[in-house]
Structures are given as C-alpha cells and as structure tokens.
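User: Sequence for Putative signal transduction protein with CBS domain containing protein below. Tokens please.
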Amino acid sequence: MDGSRDWAALGREVIAIEVEGLLGVAGRLDGAFSQAVELLAACRGRVVVTGLGKSGLVGRKIAATFSSTGTPAYFLHPVEGAHGDLGLIRPEDVALAISNSGETDELNAIIPPLKTLGVCVVAMTGRADSSLAQMADVVLDARVPREACPHNLAPTASTTAQLALGDALAVCLIELKQFRQEDFQRCHPGGALGRRLAQPVTAVMHDQKLPIATPRAALSQALAVMNEGRLGFLAVCDEGRLLGVLTDGDVRRMAAAGRLDLSAPVGDVMTRGGLRLSSRQTAAEAMDLMEARQVTVLPVVDGQGRLAGMVHLHDLLGKGRFKFAP
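Assistant: Structure tokens for Putative signal transduction protein with CBS domain containing protein:
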C-alpha cells in the first residue's frame, strides 16, 4: 500500500470530475427534458424503468423514487423482458430506458417490441446518435466529459449523471402532480400502514359501482359485469343479500376442466357462502384473513348479510383504488 499518496486529494479529484459531469448535464437540459416530464406525468399506467449492469442498478433506484413520490413505476430487467416479462407491459405504460452507450444489445432488443405494444420510450443515454436514441420517442442527454475511473472505463461520472437526471424527473413530477406530504407518508408506511390497518374495513373498501349479479343471470352476463368491475371478483346477491361469489380463478378452473357453460345461471357455478368480512371488522383483520386464505379480494357485509362493499389487498396497503387492467 502506497502510504505516501494523498488519497484525500484523489477523492476530491473524483468528486470534481463528477461535479463537472453534472454541471454539463444540467446545462443541456432543454425541451426534451420538459417533454419527458409531461409524458411521464400523463402516464395512465406505470413507468417501466429498464437498463443493464450499472445503469440497471441506477434504474432500480429511479423506479423506487418514482413509486414513493406518486408516479407508479417498476424495474424491468431487459433480459427477463426478452424472455416473457414483456407480458407485464400495457399500452398505457411509459418506458424509461437507460444506457450510457446506447448500444447495449440486451436493452435495445426489447425496444422494438415495446414500441409495437404502443409504449412511448424515453431514453437516457450519453450518446444522442446511438441506436437507443434513434428508437426512442424522447432522448435525455446524460453525456459526461469523462469517467472518474483513471482508465475512463468504470461507470462513475456517467451513473452519477443518470441518477441525478432521475431525481430531477422525480422532483418535477412531484411538483406537477402536486404530491403532498401526506401522500408521501402514505407511500412510506412504516407508521402509516399501522394507522391505516387500525381503521374499520368500511374506510378502505369499494362501495360504488360494485360488480354484482343475481343468481339467475347467465354466466356470460355475469362475466361481463365482472370484467367491467375490474377487480377479478363478482358478488352474487339476491335483493342485496350476499349468496356467493365468483372469481377470475373460478372461471379459469371451469375453462380448464371443460365445464365453462356461458348460458348457465351464475348461481349454479358460484362459490356459495364463501369468505366475507363484517362491516364491524378492521382493515388489519381483513389483511390477516387475506393472508391466511391467500385471497386478494373480500366482500364486506352488514349485520343482515347484505353486501356493503368489497376490499382489495392493495387498498389495505394504501395503494389506492386498485383495478385490473382491462
């Protein structure tokens, strides 16, 4: 070990190089950045962040920051995407693809399928003339003059620039969406989740436009109602009283067994009785029952057995009024 080397001086030099890169990125922010902010803010689905290697690690952090500040996002590994995980993508999603070179083969391979699915792609890259940039709808310039690595190889200044650009996007989205302190607390449930689960289940349940059918309705009509409700769940009621339920899992099992008769009355194929919650129970009790029985939706009934609402696991976790994609 070289004890004569001034390591503090080298550390200052590294930080200076990274500051140089950040100042360059900041000075080049232009209409493309504004366009990216507006595109992400208008996203009706989720922001799909993707990248490989060090850029992928940065992407995971960006996705986490987005999700915790009011912009639902998740990280998609490009290799996993090419092997089936593109099935998670919906046309209403927006992709943020990160690559310093813009020539990462595994990442670029999934961009055309994303575009085919109707997804808008924002590229964050250090090369505006790269293959990734040419395929993207919006290009964010993350170019830095040099890496802090003495061989100009290890991603250092470039990943710092990517991380800062991600933070800049997140903060702009906070302002644009008027994300408040109480919203932040809801997304950070270290204490908020406990307070939420202490509430009565009626405070977090769905109680409007519930997917309900009578037992005499044909299964085809009942499935149309269940699809419209987008909870993967249908309550079968007679004059308000809950008789049974039908789930998307029930339908899949009937189809797999060759027993799917769309003309049959839904009352003949529903699960009679079934799990239910009392309107007097707490959200914590609802979560305990869901965990014990491995279900994600439960009906809530009043003292006379009449349907009062439905609660989804995501509502208990504070993720808003969850809906299955149509």
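The chain has a mean pLDDT of 89.
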